[in-house]
Structures are given as structure tokens and as C-alpha cells.
């Protein structure tokens, strides 16, 4: 021991200063005394100095403490059996010095375990030699190449082991928890050292929190997501960076056993960044996997469609038409497309209808959107956090059924404040914008439909003859009719809105007794024809009113047959002829008179 202290006080190497700074303190506690012995001789050692000379050759013993293997830590002092005082190696050596010795021993133990041709004595000689080599390097003993005799172990094996031990130490600093004891007393000091593997592996498995949205959708990918691995919860000391592949798996990274902290550094395509710091417990020799479910980017801002009348621009239908019940087909595609390259089959399809909804001010709107209360048929909606959403991709919407009383042809969509009229299919894309998913274009559109329009024609007939020709000098021409709206909702006729029971149009018969409108005059609904002026020679009080219904676009309701015509009673009078004598001026009885119609030329004889 005195030689070791003397060398520590006089050594010039940097490692030696660590030990020389530590005082040698006597320990008197009986509980700290351990029996040490050299149990048996294991083979010859050649004490080779750094200059190549062999200082000595001796038969080394197998050192033990209470029956457990130990090693000489003072090559320059002879060993004596007896009780020695144990102290932690850290009181005499730095952590690096302890690790150098412990890791060298660990390597030799692993080597001999895999080389069964070496016996336990040869194994011990190799272990003892690497202990001396490390201490010589640290303490300046100048015997860095101390070895077993080549008669004990071949030069090739020893060269391989000693070089391997150095490489193992270099490669495994920090991977093992190293420690040891130093036993001091009379004679040579001995030591015990151990290296316990203190690392495991950490990796990340990335998944989707909403696979219904992301599975099979190329707009979402795990590839390229990066994660930082940290030793502290504050994520200030980064140990490694992990990158996910297309399946969401990262490679393993070796870390010290215990708790490491992982957070996402960059999100992959289609996903929101997870800012959570995740704790992961790593066990020695095992791989711990952190499974992280990232939230896909979706849009909760869905499109609202407001049905309006094309002519009035209002949400009030004309006549008996309705803006409720219009149907729209929505098609979602899990890719980015335009009108020219849309796939033949959509990923999901829905049909919705317009529903009447009342605002707080009492105004009624007819609305359709992607929600259960509007759904007619189709696939299930995409949902996230309890809300209907749309994933990244392409959406089209087409009006496929006009509401009652309106035409599908010519319908168009128009965003608020825009003059663009979108006819046919509307296409929009849902794309990433930072941490959000947004719709291109507006999220509110008015959808304008054109109301069905038709017309009417009526025939005027003589009530007595049922013919379309007037009697006598009367005429069926110039009969006037009022067309009256019977609809609760207003109608637009020739640019003016008319309410219920108002006359929307006056028509007049021609020489043929027919009065007619154009084929597109009257909006879908109920109307009444009422004669307001009889033709010359006819009475008006006998004329009936006729109700009719406009239901087909461009069609004139024909009321010219006998069952629907309007009949008028001809005006009639009587002629009384009196014949008197020329001289007497007395009435003559039974005198015949011939009465001839100037209109028809028909004559008849009547006696008065």
C-alpha cells in the first residue's frame, strides 16, 4: 500500500492526480472487514515494462474476497491473506477509471463465455491482466503490456483480447452502470469491479387517432414524422432524433434505462403536430415503444346550400311551388382532382335535401348540408370529436332533384358576393393550411332554381247553340277575362309580384272566341279565369268561373273543349206586329208577317 501511495504522490500522469488527491483514511468498523485470500495458483504472469523489458515473472494466485473473485490492484506489492477493509472504489478512483477497469473485465468475461476452449484459470489470467493494464495506464506503472506467459495463453489470443477490451471500453462508455470495491489492509490491495448493462432501446410507433378518416387516403402519411428523444421533461437535453417510415415505425435508439421523454418535432403529411411531451420507461436490455396517435387534419366548416327562387332571388317559393325537398348529391374523393380527372367512383357519396329552417327574426330559409337531419341516403358521414367533418381531398356537389314546382335545368350555385354562376357540378378541395384543413372557395352558396311556367287558353261559346259562333249580330270577340292568383305565395308575372286574389293578367278573345296567354306567363300554381266583360250581344251573368292549375313547364292549359269553355247567354227580345186599316185605323187580326234576319238571312212567318 505504501508503494501505491508513494507512486500516487510522485506520478506525473493526469489520472494519478485523481488518486493522490484522496487521503488514505483508516476504517475501524468491524462490519467493514472482509476475509481475503489467494485461493490457488492459476498461471504465470510476465511483468513486461513499457520499454519491453520483463521486470519479473511470477505465478499469480486467484484472489478472492469471502469466496468471491477479486483482482490485484497493486502489481508492485505482494499479497497476504487476511482481513481487509472494504471501501467504495469511487473513494479512490474516478468514475472514468472505474468504468475503464469494469468494462475491460466485462469484455473478457463475454469473450471467455463465447470461447469455451479457454478454461477458468486462463480466463482469470486474462481478467487480471486487463485490470493491471488499465491501472498502469491510469497510474503510470509503466507496465501497460503486462501479460500472461505465452505458455499459458497464446500470443494471438492475448493480442485479440487486449485490443478487444480497449475497443469495448471505448464503444460502451455510458452503456453500463459501473462500480467496484477496494479492499485495503496488510499487503497488496485487491478490488472487485462490475459493469451492469444500463441501456435499453426506445422507438416510436405512430398511428392515427381517426383511422376511418385516414386509412387508404394518400393525403395522410406517417412518413417523415420526426420525434426528439430527451433525458429531461423540459426537453432541453436531446439524446436522439427518430424519423417514422410509411408504416409509422421509427428505428430503435439506445438510451439509458429509466425514463426518457419524447415529443414530436415535425408532423407528417395530413396530421396535426402533437405538442405533448410523452414519458417512456425503458428497461435494461429491452425495447420500449411509445405509441402516439396523431390527429388528422379535417375541416369542420362544411358547405351550406340555401335554395332560392331564381327569378325573385328570395327564399320564398312562387305559387304553390316549394323550395323544400330539393336533393343534392355530394361525392367525396380521397385525392386531389379537378373536373377533368375525377375517378369514376367516389370514396363516399351522400344525398341530402333542403329543409325549412326559421331564423330568429322569423325568416324561413331552405337549407341543405352534410348532416343527419338533411340526409336522404348514402354512406356514413366522416366524424371527428363528435362532429361531421371532411378529410383532405376533393368534394363535388350537384343538384340532382329540383323541388316541387321548379326546374332542374338551368339551376346554378352562387357564393355570397360573387357574380360567378356555377352550373352543373360544383367542385372544391379540402387542403392543408398550417395546422388546419380548409375548403377552397366559399362555405355558403345560394342555389337558384327556375320556377315552372305555363299558360292558359279559353274558348267562348254561345250558351244556346254550344257553338263557337255568335247568334245574330252578336259577337264572341273582345270578351275579357281576368286571371286571378289563388296562391298563398306571391307569383311573378311580367316582372311584377302579385299576391293571392289579385288579377295577374287580363286576356281578350279574338274573332274565334279564344283568349290565350303565352306558354311561359304563369308560375306553377292555382289560378282562376273570371269573365270581366261580355262580348257584344251577350250577357255576363250566365258566365261561369274556371279554376286551373299550372303544373308543366311550357305547356298551355287548354280550356277550349265544350266541357271547359265559357258559355254566355245571347241577348234576346220580341217583335209584335200590328196591322191597321187604311181608313179606319182599326187593328186587323191574323195578318201574317215575314221576319228575316239581316245577319243570317233566315226568315219566318208569324201572324199577329
Task: Map the helices and strands.
Elements: H1 2-10, H2 14-20, E1 33-48, E2 54-65, E3 68-69, E4 71-72, E5 82-88, H3 95-114, H4 120-139, E6 147-148, H5 155-172, E7 176-184, E8 190-197, E9 199-208, H6 211-214, E10 226-230, E11 238-243, E12 253-256, E13 258-266, E14 278-282, E15 287-294, E16 298-299, E17 304-309, E18 327-333, E19 348-353, E20 355-358, E21 364-368, E22 375-378, E23 383-384, E24 387-388, E25 390-391, E26 393-401, E27 406-415, E28 422-423, E29 425-433, E30 436-439, E31 444-451, E32 453-462, E33 480-485, E34 491-493, E35 496-498, E36 503-508, E37 514-516, E38 522-523, E39 525-533, E40 546-550, E41 556-559, E42 566-568, E43 579-580, E44 587-588, E45 592-596, E46 603-607
Parallel strand pairs: 9-15, 17-31, 32-41, 32-42
Antiparallel strand pairs: 1-2, 1-5, 1-6, 2-3, 4-8, 5-7, 7-8, 9-12, 10-11, 10-13, 13-14, 16-25, 17-21, 18-19, 18-26, 19-22, 20-21, 23-24, 26-29, 27-28, 27-31, 29-30, 32-37, 32-38, 33-36, 33-39, 34-35, 39-40, 43-44, 45-46
Helix pairs in contact: 1-2, 3-4, 3-5
Largest sheet: 8 strands, antiparallel
Number of helices: 6
> Approximately what portion of the residues adopt beta-strand conformation?
35-45%
| Cα gyration radius (Å) | 55 Å
Structural class, from helix and strand content? mainly beta
**Are there runs of 5+ residues with pLDDT below 50, and where?**
1-30
Number of strands: 46
- Coarse shape: rod-shaped
Please indicate the count of domains.
Answer: 5
Spatial gap, N to C terminus: 177 Å
Mean pLDDT across the residues is 91
Helix content: 10-25%
Signal peptide: 1-29
Keywords: Secreted, Signal
Family: Belongs to the serine-aspartate repeat-containing protein (SDr) family.
InterPro entries: Ig-like_fold (IPR013783), SpaA_PFL_dom_1 (IPR041033)
